[in-house]
Amino acid sequence: MDQAFAVGGAPVENNDEALQNALVEPAPRDRLVAQRGLFAAPSPRVPRKMYVEVKGHADTDRDTLTLRAGAHADTNTYFGRFAASFWQRWTAVTVVRLELDHETAGSATIALRASDAKGRKRLITQEQVTGSGTLTVEGRLDRFVDGGAMWFDAVADAGDLTVTNVRWTVDAPDHLRPAAVVICTFNRADDCATTVGTLAADAGAMADIDTVCIVDQGTDQVRSRPAFAEVEAALGGKLTYLTQPNLGGAGGFSRGMHEITSAPGSAHANVILMDDDILCEPETVLRMNAFANMTVKPAIVGAQMLSLSNPQVLHVSAEREVLDEITAGALTPGAMMGVDLVKKKQEQRFDAGWNGWWTCLLPADIIADCGLPLPLFFQWDDIEYGIRARFAGHPTITLPNAGVWHADFHLKDYDDWARYFSIRNGLIVSSIYGRFDGTTIAKYLFRKISELIVSMQYGLAATFIKAAEDFLAGPEFLDDGGQAVLGEIRALRARYPETAPRPAVEVGAEADPHTQMDVWAFEPDEKREGLVLAKRAVQQFLGRVDGRPVTIPAHYANWWHVSLFSQATVTDASQGAVRVRRRDKQTALELTRQAAKVCWRLRKEAPRMKDTYTEALPRITSRENWTRLYGTEA
Predict the structure, then answer these.
(1) How many CB atoms lie within 10 A of CB 359?
(2) 316 vs 302: CA distance, rounded Å
(3) What is the per-residue DSSP string for 509-531?
């Protein structure tokens, strides 16, 4: 039997009393810890330089730094910096206090420093300390509107210096918001247990978290793992466990949002969504929750995504959408992508169009105003919700120096069943929030499908076409939460041999790894891309292509290059397999015909579809619709 929600208690079966346990507002206090000063990650795979940089001899653990005589420590690092610019922009806080405990047999120098939007550094204050005690210094948030941060450094001038219990604090508000974490999972039992266990092990981060809610949609369930019992005990009654059919990420996260905001005392709660397969930094939860408690008005606060395979690399500072191109991950002005955070700091303040739900905080006030997510099953659910909230006047903020490590997107192959949801859901979101000009959208989509056809990615082209066809069928196909179409799209793709990954060792010796360089095609000029695409289409149609089978690395597998051949073995972006693409004239013609038909319909029917989806939005995002999908109706 599915389980309903019990805030702050053990799981209970579905019944009307399940929501009687209330979220409890944290006890009032004079000071709120905005962030802690930490010196090591919760995992040894993360370099210490993400937290503190040391010159000389030093010992560090999670919350203690010991400098040997003459050593220097600098917290001008990703997790060491205080995001002063964002605090000045979005909160009424005017002063932040740095507090730390110190002990030294000699003397030491501790300095509070700052930067501006250009990265120019300045000294705020510098103190000499001796013996043991608590140092308290203050920094004003008055020169950071366009960018900049604060941090501290320490020098053990004479004798060893130990620094511990570092905290950045602000005047606490009159009322603190109760908070709950929601983790959605599907057949990643071990990953989920590890993530929750990491969070549970950090008492400081958990102090103001009332509930950790696991929404398990899988058949290999988290509660089957021995670690689950350990996590349950560690959370001391804060764990809530729900099971339901697989409704994708949208369905899993919306269930947690629904149940938490239905509980008494939740009107002003913070709901923190978190992926199951991240490497969790509990400090990020503390920082997001503290920041959200201090914003002038309720705001969505997102964490940044860091690279799991290269932990000091940032995926992107903040993102926005380009709805005319069905594109979500465009950089916002001032944002950075793929940078080494040990070498480069995020100085310029940037705004966000939306926040990914790998870790993201949603105030209950915003959920009450905007409703629950669209039942999109997979992809664009977080993007749509961020856009919806933004259009309703709610700020969306991606907080620097608050991040989690997530599997790298560049290691996920583009030719995948998930692309169906990307295109279909992108069309839905574009129709609701964009100008959705039929000619522009149809032209863009036909261009993308044509590139796939000349690249001999016939299964992916069929995936795009079905996505557009289902979009044109109207919002009723969302009535099952997206479950049925998953099987349909996999069956469709199975009809196209090149969609099947194969071990590289199966590639025959006749595929010459050097041939690709003999006829290497350079990326065409943007103004000539259309002409080059038309030329490649004609060459593929007439068979005027190189007949030698070739192997092509993933980073060379662009349409303008692969289309020069009649057979190409292309490496997956995952680097774990290859796909064998073969020219098939009849398949190419049939897919071109289907693409032309669906894009013609899209051009003609765009105004009607915009009205249809906009009108359906309140119904399909309602609590009543989601309750039906969860299967928890009385």
Answers:
(1) 27
(2) 12
(3) TTSBTTHHHHTPPPPPPGGGHHH
User: 58-73 burial by CB neighbour count: b if 16+ within 10 A, else e?
Assistant: bebeebbbbbebebbb
Helix (H, G, I), strand (E, B) or coil at 569: strand
Token pair in block for residue 406: 């997530």
Count of CB atoms within 10 A of residue 198's CB?
A: 18
Residue 19, pLDDT score? 36
Radius of gyration of the chain (CA): 27
Name the DSSP letter for residue 201.
Answer: T
DSSP 310-333: STTBEEES-EEEEGGGTEEEEEPT
Task: Using 70 as the pLDDT threshold, list the residues of the chain that sit under it.
Answer: 1-22, 508-522, 632-634
Backbone angles phi, psi at 515, to 5 degrees: -60, -35
pLDDT of residue 407: 83
Half-sphere exposure of residue 57, counting CA atoms within 13 Å on the CB side? 5
| CA distance linking residue 259 with residue 479, whole number of Å | 20
Phi-psi region of 371 (alpha: psi -120 to 50; beta: other; left: phi over 0): left
For residue 102, what pLDDT is reported? 97
Residue 583 has a pLDDT of 95
Tell me the CATH architecture of domain 31-171. Sandwich (2.60)
pLDDT of residue 461: 97
Scan for tokens 């959200």, then name that residue: 292
List, as one string, the DSSP characters of 220-266: S-GGGSHHHHHHHHHHTT-EEEEE----HHHHHHHHHHHHHHHSTT-
In the chain, where the domains are located: 3-26+174-411, 31-171, 418-588
| pLDDT tens-digit series, residues 91-138 | 999 999 999 999 999 999 999 999 999 999 999 999 999 999 999 999
∠210-215-220 over CA atoms, to 5°?
135
Checking DSSP bridges between strand 209-216 and strand 179-185, what pairing results, if any?
parallel
Q: How far is CA 186 from CA 19, 41, 247, 251, 410, in A?
A: 24, 27, 10, 11, 22
Is CATH 3.90.550.60 what the domain over 3-26+174-411 is classified as, yes or no? Answer: yes
What residues form DSSP beta bridges with 103? 132, 162
Output the pLDDT for position 266.
86
